[in-house]
Each structure stands twice: as C-alpha cells, then as structure tokens.
From TrEMBL:
InterPro entries attached to this UniProt entry: HTH_17
Record-annotated Helix-turn-helix domain positions: 15-64
Protein name, entry field: Helix-turn-helix transcriptional regulator
Organism ancestry: Bacteria, Pseudomonadati, Pseudomonadota, Betaproteobacteria, Burkholderiales
C-alpha cells in the first residue's frame, strides 16, 4: 500500500500547502478560495483544522488552466 491510498491522509493538504503550490501567501490563497465558487469543499475537523483534497485541488487547478 502506498501512502497516497485512501485512508492514509496523504491526500489532505492544509492552506499553507495550497498557497505553496500556487506560489502565493496564505492570505492570498484564502482570498482566492473565498472568491472561487467552484473551489473544492474543505474537510473541517474542528474550528481550526481545515484540509483540502490534494487530488480535487489539482483537478480544479487544471480546469482553471483549461478555461484560459
């Protein structure tokens, strides 16, 4: 089993990782997410812990690239 299999948690990324992939600051990534109605929905574990599916995020990123 690889560490990217379902249930391993490797697919979930924090806002800092989203920002790093986009090469922007965390506040800029948060603004982008807030303004993009089609951005993947987050997984909320508690009030402070939010993660995004890396696979869904990458798919969303590719779809944005194709739109332009």
């Amino acid at each position: 089993m690889s560490d990217t299999d379902i249930g391993q948690g490797a697919d979930l990324i924090a806002i800092a990782e989203v920002a790093a992939i986009l090469s922007v600051s965390k506040p800029a990534a948060m603004r982008l997410i807030a303004g993009a109605a089609d951005f993947p929905k987050p997984f909320r574990f508690n009030a402070r812990t939010v993660r995004y599916s890396k696979a869904e995020f990458i798919e969303w990123l590719h779809s944005r690239k194709e739109q332009k």
